[in-house]
Amino acid sequence: MIVQFRNVGKKFPDGTGDRWVIKDASFKIEPNQATAIRGPSGAGKTTLLNLIAGLLRPD
Question: CA torsion angle for 41, 42, 43, 49 (degrees, to 10)?
Answer without folding.
Answer: 100
